[in-house]
Amino acid sequence: MSDPYTTPEPAASALITIDLQNDFTLEGAPAMIAGTAAIVPAVRKSLEAFRKAGRPIIHVVRLYKADGSNVDLCRRHLIQRGAVIARPATEGAELVDALKPDDAIQLDADTLLAGRLQSIGPNEWILYKPRWSAFHDTMLKAVLDDLDVTTLAFAGCNFPNCPRASIYDASNRDYRLCVIADAMSELYERGLAELQGIGVHILTSDDVETWLRSS
């Protein structure tokens, strides 16, 4: 039996990708998260389905300034000591090419660090977040409200950190929620059970196109 409060509404949905940047994804990158490169095909399939359906997509990214001034406390010392991770205007900070609507797109660090959206295609944007959650000190909720979004589907890197924080913050804001399980790195069985316990619906990338057509 569907729940009238948590059942996703595909016709009012948006896809949120989290931290799918070269430095966190590519093999041998300085902050590579195990398993993230492997989810890229599933993320791409999900992105293509949302693009085909004309539904909004927001790629949420991290950018670490060289002086560490905008970095989480747990990583600030590392960056201040010279680690180059998701540094503005470096290739490592860029979205993985396979996930862009156009390979030529580059992050506009000045726009993003100023808290503004960067448009990269029809109904597709990049947004910088300064901490774990995509909602922390960002314009994300205002953007979603303007787009009349009620339902968020999440994909990205890596579940225990930024995706989980973002999903729980989305739940706090009464969004209907989906996680695309094969498009989320470091997602584990207990995590899946915990998500389902707060009303999150679990999809796979193979489900997304059909789900979007089901409205």
UniProtKB/TrEMBL annotation:
Domain spans labelled Isochorismatase-like? 13-204
InterPro entries, from UniProt? Isochorismatase-like_dom, Isochorismatase-like_sf
Pfam name, any one: Isochorismatase
Q: Which CDD domains match?
A: cysteine_hydrolases
Q: What is this protein called?
A: Nicotinamidase-related amidase
Organism of origin is Filomicrobium insigne
